[in-house]
Amino acid sequence: MSPLTPPSPDPSITTTRRVPDKVSLDGLEDRWGTAWSEQGTYTFDAQAPAEQVYAIDTPPPTVSGSLHLGHVFSYTHTDVVARFRRMRGAEVFYPMGWDDNGLPTERRVQNYYGVRCDPSLTYTPGFVPPHEGTDGKAVKPGDQVPISRPNFIELCLRLSGEDEAQFEALWRHLGLSVDWSRTYRTISDEARAVAQQAFVRNLARGEAYQALAPGLWDVTFQTAVAQAELEARDYPGAYHRVAFHGADGPVFIETTRPELLPACVALIAHPDDERYQHLFGTTVTSPLFDVAVPVLAHPAAEPDKGAGIAMCCTFGDLTDVQWWRELQLPNRTVVGRDGRLERSTPDWLTTPGAQAVYAELAGKTTFSAREAVVAALRTSGDLDGEPTPTTRKANFYEKGDKPLEIVSSRQWYIRNGGRDGALRDALLARGEQIAFHPDYMKVRYDNWVGGLNGDWLISRQRFFGVPFPVWYPLDENGEPRYDAPLVADESILPVDPSSDVPVGYTAEQRGVPGGFIGDPDVMDTWATSSLTPQIAGGWRTDPELFAKVFPMDLRPQGHDIIRTWLFSTVVRSHLEFGQVPWSDAALSGWILDPDRKKMSKSKGNVVTPMGLLTEHGSDAVRYWAASARLGTDAAFEVGQMKIGRRLAIKVLNASKFALSFAADDEPVSLDPAAVVVPLDRAMLAGLADVVDKATEALEAYDHTRALEVTETFFWTFCDDYLELVKDRAYAADADPAGAASARAALAIALDVLLRLFAPVLPFATEEVWSWWRTGSVHRAGWPTSAPLRAAAGDAPFAVVGAAGSALAALRKVKSEAKVSMRTVILSATLQVPEALEQTVGLALADVRAAGRLQGDLAVQVAEVDVPVAVDAVLEQASA
RNA sequence: GGGCGAUUGGCUCAGUGGUAGAGCGCCUCGUUCACACCGAGGAGGUCACUGGUUCGAACCCAGUAUCGCCCACCA
């Protein structure tokens, strides 16, 4: 991004005003939304040189219902940045994407239409879903009609398309300065092609691989789940003290999962644990099932947990997986992919008693099986005491509601440093190259990368997603040759291996021995969204564009998805391009409800974003959002929106006033040479400081600071400066130079203030701009301080403060006397601190006029060091 | 258990070494000559706590407490 030639107010620009008699915020969203769209105000110019481009990797919102307040909040932050950069002269690449390819979309379609996907069915042309709309509640799974995968995908596309149209309408109403001609869907052919191409290239370089291994599995969704999608939740359970049978008597273990007893492969204690030294190397038999298992030592066993000796099952938790792997234990899986115990009796249960007990468990859920095992243990006398209730932490899929099981399955992985120190270090180093805003968010990246315990699992056993562009040859027995995958060539992507045929085969060979089958899985949603820069930037289709926008400048996102979206994007970029995907990452906080809890969906639905925008106005809601700093969670506060609305209205009214002093057909002068009165020049000096501070803050992604300094100045401008100069500005006949000075200063200040407010209040500022300027304020340049300083000369801003204080003192006299502010003061003496004597003197005429002072105004240096005070004689007091 | 934030008037928050700030709310008053979706004035805080550094601490250091979040934690 290059520094731009800033616009200096051109003294020759004078325009005739068209100020409406009555100003209002109502309807500005529609009016200007339409105008911006028609005029292409935010269209990205692909011809712009690369150094001028500022590219934003916009988060594609998940299409699974409606946008909520948190979206409005964080997307406003991004839009403020986009508008600022655009005004600074950057050509802003600001696309919008829709993430519509994942599990949330599937679930919404199931609930909305009352269907479920059954891949074994064939396509039904013209299928009409049995149900439409949720009526606030979901169709129960039992009532869902099974339909084919193509039918299901058709419905996914239809519903997400409808949702996306609504999303876009909301974003336009909010005033996001997105280039709407650059919209993408993660389920589009192009996005699928990018995802498949990136995968194919990962595979060719050995960065993607397939493995058959135990992994976390959600029994509800029946899919594998990645580490990044885990959520630890409290889960009620109970310790069961269970006796294993050793040569020298019982060995007690404690377990919260007695139903896994038939899957036990060993008992394990810490090598240094004195209590179990004599048992290491011996064999014990399990209760109920009479399976002989070894007692082994492993340092991962914790002596103070439970009985200090653990029952290792395949697989109860990730520690079991570690033991199984490191101690080379057998695999005795009993829990299936549906979360139920295997129907057939496992072959390692050889005694009639064991088989009889298992027969009671077969096909049961883990929950029911647990009850059955506990009952059997009680009967056999192997349960010592009663179960002790406890709360334990269990891993859940973040979107699921049952604890994850661990099952063995064949899955695709991408290397992410979880098993490779060199890669991990390289990715940590990439983190150093990204400027996080706020910077302390970077530790979350470091924590996550440092704590990875495996590669990135990218395959999901779902339907609506990007399929893996891979087929497997079938051997003579019809078994897939997973070691010899047939990978689609980049040139033919996207492909769907369930309908497309690999090179060298015919469709008839699908599923027959000696033929082929397609990989049935789809990619995890993050595997696609980790490629948003590639998708939005035209990596495959428009290399020229891609070279201009990549690496991008900004990744805006929530701090809750640093470990997923941010990290996975860095991984893909590092592997494919050997660089970071963007220079800056802006992390927005969450919206909390007034109870300081994270806004829940149910509460969020009570106040819909569109309802808020309609009620308070988009500028008002944007003001609320822009008042919260990056990284900080903010309260949902209607009060803040009302303040924003008041500010927007004030901008309209103050602008109308500032433009009102000349006759209607008289042009407005922006000539700095006309500004000769010290008070006017002092005001511009103050404004110059504001411009510098606001610019510096926005450059540093601190939009709240920029807004604050601008707003503070603006209220002083309205309350003090405008009041002080209005009589002089009107009095063109009595004091032509003084009036011209005030009018030019007002116009120059207004011009600058509108630009400063434009990123936060795009509608009100554009409205005012249209009254007296040409073009859009959003394509006008960002103001710079140099011309203001030149116009201000050596006048100190303190003059405005001193005159303002003097005016406030006069007002206070009237306020305390409980009379109108228009009451005439017959004479007054100002008591001012010595330091202000000179500066107040420079604006005395304006102070007199604004204070309605008709007689003498004396200035004395106060004896005590106090703010400005006044002794005054009021008209009424003398009457 | 490790880490990161936060703690300032009733509320929401600014304020990184020099006599406590804003807005909202509250109180008093005013106003239709830009603005009632208004204006002016006012009251209100020992800056979570304890030590320390310093001429001087809301701010720097050490510790404590409470709250929130991130990571780890399934025997």
Content of β-strand: 15-25%
Biggest sheet: strand arrangement: 9-8-17-19
Low-confidence stretches: 1-9, 601-605
Mean pLDDT: 89
Radius of gyration: 35 Å
- Profile the largest sheet: 4 strands, antiparallel
* SSE-based structural type: alpha/beta
Distance from N terminus to C terminus (CA atoms, Å) equals 68 Å
Please give the share of residues in helix. 25-40%
Q: Looking at the chains present, what oligomeric state does this protein adopt?
A: single chain
Counted beta strands: 32
Q: Count of helices?
A: 27
- Shape assignment: elongated
Walk me through the structure.
- Helix 9 runs antiparallel to helix 10 (442-450).
- 39% of the residues lie in helices and 18% in strands.
- Helix 2 (69-87) links the parallel strand 2 (53-55) and strand 3.
- The protein is elongated and about 115 Å long.
- It is of the alpha/beta class.
- It starts with 13 loop residues before the first strand and ends with a helix.
- It is built from 27 helices and 32 strands.
- The relative contact order is 0.12.
- The chain has a four-stranded antiparallel β-sheet with strand order 9-8-17-19.
- The chain binds one RNA strand of 75 nucleotides through strand 10, strand 11, strand 15, helix 6 and strand 16.
